Amino acid sequence: MEENAVWQRALRPFAWVSGDPDPRGLQVGFFVLIVLDRLLRRAGGVPLGDGNWPLRGAAFALLVLVVVCLVPGRWSRRRTVALLAGADLAAIGIGSLGPETGGIGLLLVLPALWLGNEFRLRGAVAAALATLGLVTVPGLLAHGLEGEWLARFVPLPILAGLGALALAAGLDIAEAAQRRAEAGEHRLARALRALEAERQTAQEVFDSVDVGLMLLDREGRRVGMNRRYEECVNLSLSDTPLPWPGDTFAADGTTRLRPDEVPSARAARGEEFDDYRIWAGADPRTRRCLSVSARRATGPDGKPVGAALACTDITELMRALEVKDEFVATVSHELRTPLTSIAGYVSILLEDADLDAAIERKLRVVDRNTKRLTGLVEALLQEAHLVDGVLPLAPCEMDLAGVVAERVRAAEPTAMASGVDLEYDGASASVVLADPERIGQVVDNLVSNAIKYTPRGGRVRVGVECCDAGVELRVVDTGIGISPPDLERLFTRFFRTRAAMEAAIQGVGLGLSIAKAIVEQHGGRIEVASEVGRGSEFRVWLPALAQAAA
Ligand code: ADP
């Protein structure tokens, strides 16, 4: 495009010999120049010579002008220009027949340029030949082949041919450049249209998904946001002018978030997170719960280019969970009283020494099942507490190895009945600051699971050792194992593996989620490694006494 503009600018002064000028204009220009030549000769006192040839040449040019003006549009432009150039060369030839040709010969450049402009290479050849035939040959015939006249007339066809050729070549280059530029412009326009269409499609897709999406650049500035995310942000911006982040609350629905705690601020700091729950909205009755995830975005060179956030409205799910938790808590609570009463009366009946053996056997079945039912109700109630985020703890300095040894001993009859070899290997000093009852519950759950999910003839090893600024409990079994996808959801409430259900092993899927909550509330962590068909290893790490106290 640049190149094209340069050429157009360069050729502008030649507009009346290049491009598509009106032939009448050309002829007017030529006639004016030839008259000027005559006038300058007269002013300079140059004699016109015998035959008055210069004036005849000018008269011929005038005649051509009159003809051109009288027959407009009769011929095609190209033909008119060709005839005009020939006629003007003839006028120059006539003007050159006198003894003093002056500068008239130079005027032949004009018809030569017109020919070059109109017919390019062919025009250049025609200009040279026409000059030869109409100017050089008649001139030499009139003046003779003497040196001076030869020098005057012979270069003229060359001059005309070269002038026309130069213009033709320049115009060819300019046109090629213009064509290239126009093709480039078209390609660019097409690419821009395609890009715009793609951008619009992408924006429509971006806007139509039900998940809120936002992109941040490296500095944490917003690069893009779809309608859904905007709606989520707008929830926090009520009419009351509150400072940012407006009515945005933490997962508990009541603690206001600080500006640096909102998802976009965390993502801008380079944090990656999943299911970060926040509540947005001024009115607690209509407040919405949003689950936000963030991932760092990297460029092709692996360097960070920003972050992407995805936000989903999970209010309905949260309300449904609340209703379910309330229902489970209420039912469990209502079941506990009659169960306590049944358990109490069964144990009173079992204390009777005169009890018939058959009735005692049946009562023991009732007793076992009542205890199971009571355990289940307890687990459900604890779960309800966990949902509220409170699990009352009574921490004290306790010897983990001692508690574990006691619980393993209590599990020995079950292991024996199941044909599983249970072994314990304890550490000497393993004092932690913890709630012995709750930690005992964790041990019970892990050991009973290990026995439950290990087929007859298998082994369960329980160990406690001091390590890594804390104490670690290990429960290793040679049982049915857990598949990798199941491992990811193992600590989710009510989750049971497919293998456990297919083997019809009884359970409700609450023990591990409660164990995890208890361990984490003690500042510890619980981990599991497992292989299907080979066994599992559960590890519980609790901070050592000094650390826990701090
Ligand atoms: P429950 O045992 O009552 O079903 P838990 O929460 O204790 O509930 O365990 C959840 C699930 O994890 C179990 O149902 C079982 O599928 C799997 N699981 C737990 N411990 C083991 C183990 N040692 N080996 C294999 N699977 C296990």
Keywords summarizing the entry:
alpha+beta, binds adenosine-5'-diphosphate, single chain, five-stranded mixed beta sheet, rod-shaped, 550 residues, six-stranded antiparallel beta sheet, 13 strands
Secondary structure topology:
Blueprint: H1 2-11, H2 23-44, H3 53-70, H4 77-95, H5 109-143, H6 147-153, H7 155-208, E1 212-217, E2 222-225, H8 227-236, E3 248-249, H9 263-268, E4 273-280, E5 288-298, E6 304-313, H10 315-351, H11 357-387, E7 396-399, H12 400-418, E8 421-425, E9 431-434, H13 436-452, E10 459-467, E11 470-477, H14 484-488, H15 498-502, H16 511-521, E12 525-531, E13 535-543, H17 545-549
Parallel strand pairs: 8-10
Antiparallel strand pairs: 1-2, 1-6, 3-4, 4-5, 5-6, 7-9, 10-11, 11-13, 12-13
Helix pairs in contact: 1-7, 2-3, 3-4, 4-5, 5-7, 10-11, 11-16, 12-13, 13-16
The protein binds adenosine-5'-diphosphate.
User: Span between N and C termini?
Assistant: 74 Å
Shape category: rod-shaped
The ligands found in this model are:
adenosine-5'-diphosphate
Q: Let me know the average pLDDT.
A: 87
Describe the structure concisely.
This protein is an alpha+beta fold and 550 residues long. The protein has helices at 2-11, 23-44, 53-70, 77-95, 109-143, 147-153, 155-208, 227-236, 263-268, 315-351, 357-387, 400-418, 436-452, 484-488, 498-502, 511-521, 545-549, and strands at 212-217, 222-225, 248-249, 273-280, 288-298, 304-313, 396-399, 421-425, 431-434, 459-467, 470-477, 525-531, 535-543.
Could you characterize the architecture of this molecule?
57% of the residues lie in helices and 16% in strands. It is an alpha+beta fold and 550 residues long. The strands form three sheets. It has a six-stranded antiparallel sheet with strand order 2-1-6-5-4-3, with helices on both faces. It has a five-stranded mixed sheet with strand order 8-10-11-13-12. A two-stranded antiparallel ribbon has the order 7-9. Strand 12 and strand 13 form a beta hairpin. Helix 1 runs antiparallel to helix 7, helix 11 packs across helix 16 and helix 13 runs antiparallel to helix 16. The radius of gyration is 52 Å and the shape is rod-shaped. The two termini are 74 Å apart. The protein binds adenosine-5'-diphosphate. The site of adenosine-5'-diphosphate has 20 residues, from helix 13 and helix 16.
